Amino acid sequence: MTTRQSVQVRYRALSQPGRIGSLTLPHRVLMGSMHMGLEGQPDKLGQLCDFYRERAEGMAALIITGGPP
Question: What is the model's pTM?
Answer without folding.
Answer: 0.65
